[in-house]
Amino acid sequence: MKNIAVYAGTFDPITFGHVDLLERATRIFDKVIVAVAVNKNKKPLFTLEERVTLAKTALANLKNIEVQGFDSLLLDFAKQHQANIILRGLRAVADFDYEFQLASMNRYMNQEIETMFMMPAEKYMYISSSLVREISALGGDISGFVPHVVVEALRGKK
After folding, report:
1. What is the pTM of this model?
2. Among 2, 25, 52, 119, which has the minimal tally of Cβ within 10 Å of its Cβ?
């Protein structure tokens, strides 16, 4: 049985924390699908197509990664792609409560798909996409937080 993981998020934008987690995940799983969510509850800075392109570019050196946009229930997306694992990132204790609720709900809805948690390297634990967007909007240097392709894309948004 192949272990196929889905790592879902809005990735608005993708950060070094995401990249770090995915680099390590590619050593554990046979395939990792980065599922870029539409998420109608958020107002993303980048369009879905832009976020997919940024993620594909930032992750181009990883061999067993696939990047796709999606606008459905995550469990349905995972099932469509024969994934048996939902991969979630945890940065801090504050993330755990919400992630625990999601994992419990997903397990209730589909017991065949497991949720696994990974943490980014300590040097990336504090990075979030929302902080990157805010720093960028205020003219700060974000080059230590995101891949170069994102720095360039954010310059284009100003």
Report:
1. 0.93
2. 2
